[in-house]
Every structure is written in C-alpha cells, then in structure tokens.
Amino acid sequence: QVQLVESGGGLVQAGGSLRLSCAASGSIFSIGAGGWYRQAPGKQRDLVAVMTSGASTKYADSVKGRFTISGDNAKNLYLQMNSLQPEDTAVYYCNAKAGIMDYWGKGTLVTVSS
C-alpha cells in the first residue's frame, strides 16, 4: 500500500506560480512511476506530467515549458507550475504506479484568476 498526500494548492493570479508537493508513505520501494493529473469541473481527469523511476519525464502539451515535475527517492514528488493561466484551474492529483496498482491522493485545488 502507498499513501499519497498533496499540498501546495491555492489561489493565484494569472502569470503567477505555485509549487505542488506530494508526500508518499508506505511501500514506496514499489513505486515505478509518479505523476500529476488534474480534473477541471465537468471534465475528465487528464495527465499533466509523469516521471518514471529512471527519471524520464513526460508532459501534456498544454503545460510543456511552464510546468516541471521532480522528485526525491520516491518519497516526495513536486510540480513547479509557472506562468499559470485560468485554464490551469483544476483539482490536481498525485498518482503513483506500483506494479499493477494505481494509487491516488485526495487532490489539491488550484485556482487561477484572470
């Protein structure tokens, strides 16, 4: 079992920055990849960024060049978000993949005002 707790969301003006954090506990040795997803009201949950245990990364086209995913020893995962826009408003979820299992945090709300 892996437990994930996100933090760092909040209200920011367009053009501003936020840094999201995800703290992992439990069987973190089993984590093969970690990532961030987001879900805007009335929309599906979409991938924002993912990082494998080998530190390769992948980003959604909409956030490339603005967001950066990073992590340390599978214990913490971060998402640095710069040049935020109103369309980035969503609940952001931390995800960890361990074998065939998917683990999710409860999410943290990011609101970007215009």
Question: What are the low-pLDDT stretches, counting only 5+ consecutive residues below 50?
Answer: none
Tell me, what's the shape?
A: globular
Overall pLDDT level:
94
The overall strand count is: 11
The fraction of residues in strands falls at over 45%
Q: Report the C-alpha radius of gyration, rounded.
A: 13 Å
What order do the helices and strands follow? Answer: EEEEEEEEEEE
Distance between the termini: 40 Å
Which oligomeric form is depicted? single chain
Assign a percent range to the helix content: under 10%
SS summary, helix count: 0
Largest sheet: 7 strands, mixed
What structural class do the secondary elements suggest? mainly beta
The gist of it:
With 114 residues, this protein is an all-beta fold. It has strands at 2-7, 10-13, 18-26, 33-39, 45-52, 57-59, 67-72, 76-81, 90-98, 101-104, 108-113. The strands form two sheets. Strands 2, 4, 5, 6, 9, 10 and 11 form a seven-stranded mixed β-sheet that branches. The chain has a four-stranded antiparallel β-sheet with strand order 1-3-8-7, with no helix packed on it.
Question: In words, what does this structure look like?
Answer:
- The chain is mainly β.
- The protein has strands spanning 2-7, 10-13, 18-26, 33-39, 45-52, 57-59, 67-72, 76-81, 90-98, 101-104, 108-113.
- The strands form two sheets. Strands 2, 4, 5, 6, 9, 10 and 11 form a seven-stranded mixed sheet that branches. It has a four-stranded antiparallel sheet with strand order 1-3-8-7, with no helix packed on it.
- The model has no long low-confidence stretch (mean pLDDT 94).
